[in-house]
Protein: Acetate kinase
Organism: Oceanicoccus sagamiensis
Amino acid sequence: MNILVINCGSSSVKYQLINPKQDNPLAQGLIELGAQTDHATAIGQLLEQTQDETIDAVGHRVVHGGDSFRDAVIIDSEVIAQIQQWVPLAPLHNPPALAGIQAAQTAMPDLPHVAVFDTAFHSTLPRRSSHYAIDTELAEKHRIRRYGFHGTSHQFVAQEAARHLNRPINELRLITLHLGNGASACAIEMGSSTETSMGMTPLEGLVMGSRSGDIGAGIIFKLLRDEVAGVDELDDLLNRQSGLKGLSGLSGDLREIETEAAAGHDKARLSIAVFAHRVKKYIGAYAATMGGLDAVILTGGIGENSASMRQRILQRLEFLGLQVDEDNNQDARVNHTDKVTVISTPNSRVPALVIKTNEELMIARQTAHLIAQQSRLQVDLHIPIAVSARHLHLDKETFAALFGDKAEPTHHADLSQPGQFACKEKVTLVGPRNRIEGVRLLGPLRNKNQIEVSRTDEYLLGVDAPVRDSGRVKGSAPITLEGPVGSVRLNEGLICARRHIHMHPDDAERFGVEDKDEVEVAITGGPRDLVFCDVLVRVSHGYRLEMHIDTDEANAAELDRSSQGSLVYTDIEGRTASLRNLKTS
Ligand SMILES: Nc1ncnc2c1ncn2[C@@H]1O[C@H](COP(=O)(O)OP(=O)(O)O)[C@@H](O)[C@H]1O
Ligand SMILES: CC(=O)OP(=O)(O)O
Ligand SMILES: [Mg+2]
């Protein structure tokens, strides 16, 4: 699937055509806007430049989605109206995004268009970090709270860092520093944003190219009262004439400032010092709010490219367990193929990583995921559910000991999985506390004994058997079996079977899952609906679509024999999407 990703700014339209399964884009470009080139003209040019490739969907970067969106959405008129609402809080970013969406929808009316929001990743901010300390009713009425931005980038580099460190993201406390023209820091605990330096608008927090970042609110009153500037002038002053640009008096481009600083320009030096100091301050703050730190990640044009700025930011953080290797820092180079470089010493307890961000790839992934999910909605997602009562599989030797040397398993009834059948033979399970009689054998015989009971059965028997995938009986619970001819004491073999779904490869393709995936299945439409998590998918040409659960699980959901569930998809990055739709019947 090829996704056209559009990032519309006030002065340019940036685009990339991406196959989300590949690191490098199929095409990319930047079209300057001007007197002759409005958004519609730019989109026209962009389509000419990509005409050799197919486009399956369009992903748009939208900076401010406020609290209206927690995830990417397919754009419709309602979504556009919502984005419009947040224009006053992102005057630099949302109007060009809306103009871009409108132009792209006009030019490509038959394609799905998806909005991916900078704010979405920060929808997990806890109350303590999203609230400003002002009157809560006033804040609520005017939707004044901290939303945070650059979420796509923070999330992308956090995932890359976890992959590089070979640690599950839900074990990590990360600080990600997106340092570009806009700059923000983020504290990420267990994969979720818990603090970030931008607030209600992208003006807050770190020093930026032309934005002031944090300043005392009193400064604004003073400038207004002294009539130094009106409201619009102040807006321009803080958004466009401050930050590195305001401090240095030169420009917002760090490269130029670094050149001048090296030549002795005092204000250029000051601007670098203030920038680095502010970032360091946030690192300390976030290490404290998270109660520790497992890695620091630098990204964005400055984070990826300026070794001297990285050095200033990270020096003297040994007390946090972070020690920079200056040679590695100087040599660090990242690109879309070699995304990650470690710049800390081997002994540094907290690694420091430079990571090439890729907001466009992240937008393409989320767009593709949403489109795939939509198309799955069109297909039949029902899964028949079979409730397994307690039963057992035996090996030849145990069968002979229980039923006699000459005996063979006798066919009673076919089971739904091809080749499997229920036998006439039954045994008694003997536990330390109680016996359970009449437990049916399933055929054909196997090479390992496996006795599958429910938790309730375990309590009755007085044993504690592990939850296991079928076939994994090593180290499982012991049990005694009694048959008509003899009894056998097994040292292992008793399990509580892990819930699973048998699928033919065609089903797996239709559901978009693979062998050994873990999925969730929602049971809806009944009197005791629930979602089964940790359901194992087992794919084989020999299987027929069916979910197997035990009697306890079926009772908990008040299921009868003809019940069906529906898959709740687990997406590429392991978060759960809300596709729990269909009902049992
Ligand atoms: N080699 C470099 N050395 C220092 N700064 C750099 C270098 N390359 C890019 N930058 C800085 O990165 C910033 C732009 O970051 P970028 O992430 O591209 O911006 P945007 O937020 O517009 O996407 C500018 O301040 C630029 O000076
Ligand atoms: C939110 C924001 O500041 O974005 P950018 O860095 O693209 O200006
Ligand atoms: Mg940026």
In short: Residues 63, 118, 149-150, 180-182, 202 surround acetylphosphate (ligand 2) (CB under 6 Å).
